[in-house]
Design a protein that fits this description.
953 residues, alpha+beta, Rossmann fold, Jelly Rolls, 4 domains, 6-stranded mixed sheet, 24 helices, 24% strand, Xaa-Pro_dipept_C
């Protein structure tokens, strides 16, 4: 069934607006290289009829390969346009797809006003674009007027993919990302009541009442209400500023630069002008509904009806297109429960569904590594379901391996994904573990107007919260807490835990916020992903002696609670991100009859990152990134007034950049000359060079200890220099430990942190001491320490506060082999969280095993830069040791089945000559064949490459 635009939309709630912004919080990554030249065609496509007719600004990307080919429509996120997904379109076209991008009505160069994915407007526009594709000779057809086509998009664009597949059965596959199931439940959530499912992240989707997400709504309505170019359309194109369809073919030419003419506002109704200036690009009924919701914080039946109209929840049973659902674990706008509900609804129709959770979301951009993995997921999905090529991606479930990195515990597995054959609970019951809680009945005060309010996360700024170690603020007297005993063994939570509470309220209603904290043995607390569960409770007893039992679903998370830690359920009366009651009152909160916390767990197969190139991008919206910067400046501007340097737009993706840096001294000695390189998020960079190469001088300039003579050093886009505020995001250990010998290791760490002037709770002291690994020796005077012990305390000191950029000079000096191995794992796991590490070392074997990238210096200049494999040289010979020598014959057979590979036996094992096959591919082939590999070592080591490079210099 294909929708037809109709006029006369009922009052819609601009609350929907908030949802739209999602995709803008994921960083764009460069596309894979195209297979050939891509040709593009720009056109304006007419959609709708009568007063609802709009011109959609489109770009068609045509590959040079075999045609006709399947097509992919890319939908952008809120605040973006077709330009937001241009690089993704080029990549897909390079892979042989015909790709169509467009700006949704009200965005970019398209006319019309924002209807928030209303099926009568935006989704009807999508069907118009499918008609366009069906008329192209380059597009493969499944039938007359039926193109072979997939649709992908993030957040606003993801919902368009879901709704499009529900209303237009010509769509053959979809890949919606970080999007919603029910706008009502997403914008007015209340996570209480029984869920009619037992999947791991099943969350109540109450469409009757909820707690209004005030901050998300305000931020994104502000973005969409800026008049921008949509002002002309809102005023009806009074001055003829639109270009029409002159030749009747359904398209209109793009106006030339400077062709737009401003309307004569004096000829218009003043009330209409005022309304347009207030509502910007939104339809006026949406604007009015948002203003009502923002003023009252109340979900009315009228608003709910409009939200439901733009929700996939009511039409999932129509979707027959195979669906890949990608959802982020760090998302306070559309949590894991939204993807869970979409998966259940689509699978119930017998449609193939695969669910992938990843580290990232609206609150924190995914790392480059994660983004690359997601690209591969989408590539495989479309290749199989549109082309019938490649391996069957199946209908399983993937999620990041649970770690305690959020609470400072550096554990292995940060770069792993866990895979299961099916989404837990779809075909049965998800596994849950009971964790007993205890705690007395407690009064919880609600202050008048909800002020002061608890602070858990700032919408869109989860990365900022993470930089502070997940710090939150609970107001004394405004919360109740219930705790487990210290855990005997680690507990991995994958999904949404549940708990029963007993609540009494004088007026019979209560607004509360439930959350699950990780409490370390030293008392440090972490709120995983900074997520909370709002509760809008009604029908409560007014008698604290006879409270009402309510079932609460806590936020869906992926987190590992380590042994010795405590699980703490906190129920508070305030949260600054939500609308709160105006009247003060006191609630009574206790544990319900079932005092156990029910924790979902998933037993899957860990799958390490292979490091192969990926291609898909989770659509990024430039307006969202701008909004992120605006809010960050609003929150932190008072502390950064001294900062006057220009900020580089890609600063968050490039934590460190050297540009033409030279350091010359007055005696004429040049320590560093014209040094340029950059380090990207998530990398571990090794800085190599012989004595006198300029490594330490470069690090001292980076840390602001000395100034460069020429050039610029930027950290997260800000100029680095003595006293620069951005240096607070850097942790370093360069040129000696600097520890006070008469103080204990613990006191040295406390003294160092106190000198920074930051709150003690931000230090993550317990985690730093865990890194040091000194046991009871941490409380002995440092003068009794060995060199290795001092080194470990100094490294822990550099990691205090979990800095985003970690700089270490010779970190393994004085450490024994087991300690070196442990430090290697710490650094790799640390970078796997999206942070960045720079290591300077003379131990080339350690650099080779620890670092992902290398910069080689000699005589003050850079002589080489690249990945370790690029520096060493791809291919070549490798030595292979097997766990079972009896597998040698089979290993030889597997390896020699690869292009250009020859193998010979030696006394030390197998030696394979790789000519045209990468080492990664050879190792992957052995692992896939079930052959256990004990050693896989290049015959040419980094040391050989280093000596050759330095000699050449």
């Amino acid at each position: 069934m294909r929708p037809r635009p109709r006029s006369g939309a009922r009052a819609t709630s601009a609350v929907l607006v908030l949802l739209l912004s999602s995709t803008g919080l994921l960083a764009l990554a460069p596309p894979a290289s195209a297979a050939g030249e891509v040709r593009t065609e720009e056109a304006r496509v007419t959609s709708g009829s009568g007063a609802e007719t709009v011109q959609l600004d489109t770009t068609l990307y045509l590959p040079t390969g075999e045609l006709p080919a399947p097509a992919v429509v890319l939908a952008h996120g809120f605040g973006g346009s077709k330009e937001s997904v241009a690089s993704d379109a080029e990549d897909l076209a390079g892979r042989g797809y015909v790709v169509l991008t467009y700006s949704a009505r009200g965005f970019g160069g398209s006319t019309g006003q924002i209807g928030l994915n209303d099926p009568r407007y935006e989704i009807a526009d999508l069907s118009t674009l499918l008609d366009l594709l069906a008329d192209r000779d380059e597009v493969q057809l499944d039938g007359d007027g039926d193109p072979r086509v997939g649709v992908a998009g993030g957040s606003y664009g993801g919902a368009a993919a879901l709704l499009g597949a529900a209303y237009d059965d010509r769509i053959d596959a979809i890949a919606p990302q970080i999007t919603w199931n029910s706008l009502t439940a997403a914008l007015f959530p209340s996570q209480t009541g029984t869920v009619e499912a037992d999947t791991v992240a099943a969350t109540p989707q109450d469409d009757r009442a909820g707690v209004f997400k005030r901050l998300w709504a305000g931020l994104f309505f502000g973005v969409g209400s800026v008049p921008s170019g949509g002002l002309l359309d809102a005023l009806g194109g009074a001055a003829g500023g639109e270009d029409g369809d002159e030749d009747g073919d359904g398209t209109a030419s793009v106006p030339s630069a400077g062709a737009t003419r401003l309307p004569d506002l004096s000829a218009l109704d003043p009330a209409a002008v005022e309304q347009t200036l207030t509502c910007g690009r939104f339809r006026t009924d949406i604007c009015a509904a948002y203003q009502t919701a923002a003023a009252t914080g109340t979900l009315t039946p009228e608003i709910a009806a409009v939200l439901d109209r733009s929700s996939p929840a009511g039409v999932l049973h129509r979707i027959e297109a195979p669906t890949l659902l990608l959802q982020g674990t760090q998302d306070s706008l559309f949590g894991l429960g939204q993807a869970d509900a979409n998966a259940r609804g689509i699978a119930a129709n017998g449609t193939p569904v695969k669910v992938v959770w990843f580290t990232g979301g609206h609150d924190s951009p995914a790392s480059d590594r994660v983004t690359e993995e997601l690209r591969e997921q989408v590539a495989g999905w479309f290749d199989f379901h549109l082309r019938g090529a490649g391996a069957d991606p199946g209908t399983g479930f993937e999620f990041p391996a649970p770690t305690a990195l959020g609470s400072g515990q550096f554990v292995q597995g940060g770069s792993q994904t866990v895979v299961t054959d099916t989404y837990p609970g779809l075909d049965g019951t998800a596994d849950r573990r009971s964790v007993p809680l205890s705690g007395p009945t407690q009064p919880v005060v609600t202050p008048a107007g909800g002020t002061p309010g608890a602070l858990t996360t700032v919408p869109g700024l989860g990365a900022l919260t993470s930089a502070l170690g997940g710090s939150t603020l609970e107001i004394p007297g405004q919360f109740a807490a219930f705790e487990s005993e210290p855990l005997d063994a680690a507990v991995e939570v994958v999904g949404a835990p549940t708990v029963e509470l007993a609540v009494a309220a004088p007026a019979g209603t209560a607004t509360l916020f439930a959350k699950l904290y990780d409490v370390a043995p030293g008392g440090g607390t972490t709120l995983p992903s900074s997520l909370v569960a709002p509760l809008a409770l009604t029908g409560l007893s007014a008698d604290p002696a006879r409270p009402t039992t309510v079932r609460v679903t806590l936020p869906g998370i992926v987190h590992r609670f380590e042994a010795g830690h405590t699980m703490r359920v906190v129920v508070s009366s305030t949260d600054q991100a939500f609308a709160l009651p105006a009247e003060s009152t006191v609630y009574s909160v206790a544990l319900g009859d079932g005092t156990d916390l029910q924790v979902p767990q998933v037993d899957g197969t860990p799958q390490a990152d292979t490091g192969t190139s990926r291609w898909w991008v989770l659509l990024a919206v430039l307006a969202g990134l701008g909004l992120l910067g605006w809010v960050a400046a609003l929150l932190w501007g008072r502390h950064r007034r001294r900062q006057v340097s220009a900020v580089e737009p890609d600063g968050e993706d490039v934590p460190l950049r050297f540009e033409g840096v030279t350091k010359a001294y007055k005696d004429g000695f040049v320590a560093v000359r014209d040094l340029s390189f950059e380090v990207r998020r998530g990398q571990v960079l090794g800085l190599l060079g012989p004595n006198g190469a300029g490594k330490t001088t470069s690090l001292r300039m980076l840390m602001g200890l000395i100034r460069p003579t020429e050039g610029r050093i930027s950290i997260f886009g800000h100029a680095a220099g003595p006293g620069a505020p951005v240096l607070s995001r850097l942790g370093s250990f360069v040129e000696g430990t600097g520890l006070q010998p008469h103080l204990s290791g613990r006191d040295n760490l406390r003294l160092y942190w106190a000198a920074t002037g930051r709150p003690a709770e931000d230090a993550h002291m317990a985690e730093a001491i865990e890194v040091a690994g000194l046991g009871t020796a941490i409380d002995r005077p440092v003068r009794r320490y060995s060199q290795g012990m001092r080194q470990r305390v100094a490294i822990a000191q550099a990691m205090l506060g979990l800095p985003d950029l970690l700089v270490l000079d010779e970190p393994t000096n004085g450490l024994d082999p087991p300690q070196i191995h442990a430090m290697r794992e710490v650094l790799r796991s640390y970078a796997a969280t999206g942070r960045t590490v720079i290591v300077s070392s003379h131990l080339l074997s350690e650099i080779e095993q620890t670092c992902s990238h290398v910069v080689v210096m000699a005589k003050g200049q850079k002589i080489a830069q690249g990945t370790v494999e690029e520096i060493v040289g791809a291919g070549g010979a490798v030595s292979i040791g097997l766990v079972d020598d009896a597998e040698a014959d089979r290993a030889i057979e597997v390896l020699e089945g690869l292009p250009g590979v020859s193998v010979e036996r030696t006394d030390e094992g197998l030696v394979a000559e790789l000519d045209g096959t990468s080492r990664a591919r050879a190792l992957q082939a052995l692992v896939e064949a079930g052959i256990e590999v004990d050693q896989f070592t290049p015959r040419r080591r980094l040391e050989d490459a280093f000596l050759a490079l330095v000699g050449e210099s």
